[in-house]
Every structure is written in structure tokens, then in C-alpha cells.
Design a protein that fits this description.
Helix content is 43%, strand content 14%. The chain has 272 residues and is an alpha+beta fold. α6 packs antiparallel against α7.
């Protein structure tokens, strides 16, 4: 509905004044969208995504606010009085629309990497992180982030999640490298997938990988692509720096030439 769509247009903690005089934040708009249409799966999902962001400074009299006691998961209070965590918001999104691929992907990221960690959906199914990502891909084969998250190595474990390959619901058995190539085929602008693919080559000892668009990229070029798409990608900057010898310089895709030291000393991203 209109409130959900307007919320998507705002930055995370931007405010907008409506014609009725109310001043609402992005979060307030998603809460209003759910109040007007309790079956709005997208609004539940978008509100869950918003809880990932850092808490803003206190802004009194702006309606619904996220709350967090020390050591407790952050929650948001809906207008019907329910106080929902990020996990519960994604579960609600799937309850309202079991075909919401993004909600499966986002719920997977809330779960611990441990294969034993699982969540019970409203329809009674018990799914772990990998199950949720497989479901996301099944529902939307173009979901680049689901391919990326399935192929990403969690906490140094051999991926996908301790297995050499993972079998998708269409029967394809894909390695971590294959999954990341699929992610970039769906979204060539996914900076983290370039970086992760560079790390895969580094770990496997391979020097190059061929993407589905025909490009053959080296480890170094993959890191350069990640930085070009996301100049503040600290992990990619460090990975590229570790490819260089002391005093060695490299020319980025934006034509800046930087030494190893300069790469490591680039300033962090500005606050949102």
C-alpha cells in the first residue's frame, strides 16, 4: 500500500510530514502499513530489515519506536500492541505470503550458522538456515542475495555450511564457487559476491574464474570489482591490500593509484 511504498522511498531514519500534519519515520510508515493491511507481507519484511540498522538518537513523539533492553533482541511495537522481534517479523511476513522469497532469505540471516539451529514456520515446517535459502531460490531463481548467502563461508567453515556442494531444489549440485557465480549472474552489481569469490579462489589456489557474462577475472580483479562497486568495503580493501607487497601500488578501477598502506588507511564509510 501507499505507506509501505512511501517508507521504501525514505532513508532509514528520515522523517516526512504527511498532509494530516503527522511526522513519520520510515519505521512508522511500515507500522502504519501493517495497521491498515495486517496481511501486508512486504511491510513485515521491510520492518524486519529496518531492525538491522543502528538505533537512531531519541526522537520523541514520532509514534512507534524500536526498543531494546540490554542483552535483549530489538523489537518493534505494532499498533495492535504486539511487540515483535526481527525473527518474528519475518515469520509474520511468511505467514501472510508463503511465497515471499526475500523473507525466507532474511529469516535465514537471523538464524545462527549452526546446522542444528532451526525455526518453526506458522505452517508447521521446521527449517534451518540452508533450508530457508534453498526455499528462497526455489521461489525466486533470480534472488541473487540468496545464492550469495548460501555460498558465503560462515565463520571460516568450509562452505556451503560444511559441505563441498549443496543440492538445490531443482536438482543442481553447486559448489561455493558455483553459487557465487550464480549470484553475480543474477546481480552483477553485488560487491560482496565479487569479494567472496576472490576469497574462494585464494583458498582453493585457483588464479581465475569465468563468469557467466563471459568475463574471466583474477583474484585481484575480483577484489577491484568489489571496491569499485562499494568503495568503503573494508573487507575487500584489506583483501586487496594483502595481495600487495610493502610499497607496491595498484591502480583501482576509478584510476586512483594506491599503495598497500594507503588501502588500509582509507577512511571508513560516512554514517547513514
Amino acid at each position: 500500500n501507499a505507506c509501505n511504498n512511501l517508507g521504501l522511498e525514505l532513508r532509514d531514519w528520515e522523517q516526512i510530514q504527511l498532509r494530516d500534519g503527522r511526522t513519520l519515520t520510515k519505521k512508522d510508515l511500515f507500522v502504519e502499513a501493517i495497521h491498515l493491511d495486517p496481511a501486508n507481507s512486504m511491510a513485515y519484511n521491510n520492518l524486519g530489515l529496518l531492525l538491522q540498522q543502528p538505533l537512531p538518537p531519541p526522537l520523541p513523539e514520532l509514534g512507534s519506536r524500536a526498543s531494546a533492553a540490554p542483552g535483549a533482541p530489538r523489537t518493534v511495537t505494532l499498533k495492535d500492541g504486539r511487540q515483535l522481534s526481527q525473527r518474528e517479523l519475518y515469520l509474520e511476513a511468511l505467514h501472510r505470503n508463503p511465497h515471499n522469497s526475500n523473507a525466507y532469505n532474511n529469516l535465514a540471516l537471523v538464524l545462527p550458522v549452526d546446522e542444528a539451529a532451526a525455526v518453526v514456520l506458522h505452517d508447521g515446517r521446521t527449517l534451518n538456515r540452508v533450508d530457508l535459502l534453498l526455499e528462497a531460490i526455489q521461489l525466486d531463481p533470480g534472488n541473487a542475495k540468496a545464492y550469495y548467502n548460501l555460498g558465503k563461508a560462515p565463520h571460516g567453515q568450509p562452505p556451503p555450511h560444511g559441505k563441498a556442494v549443496v543440492t538445490l531444489k531443482d536438482g543442481r549440485a553447486l559448489s561455493q564457487r558455483d553459487l557465487l557465480v550464480e549470484a553475480l549472474d543474477r546481480d552483477p552489481q553485488l560487491a560482496d559476491a565479487y569479494h567472496q569469490l576472490g576469497l574462494v579462489l585464494q583458498q582453493s589456489g585457483n588464479k581465475k574464474v569465468k563468469l557467466k557474462d563471459g568475463r574471466t577475472l583474477s583474484r585481484r580483479r575480483l577484489f577491484l570489482e568489489a571496491i569499485h562497486l562499494d568503495p568503503h568495503n573494508r573487507a575487500a580493501l584489506e583483501s586487496l591490500a594483502h595481495q600487495l607487497q610493502e610499497g607496491e601500488a595498484i591502480t583501482l578501477l576509478d584510476r586512483r593509484t594506491l599503495t598497500k598502506r594507503e588501502l588500509l588507511l582509507l577512511p571508513p564509510p560516512p554514517p547513514p
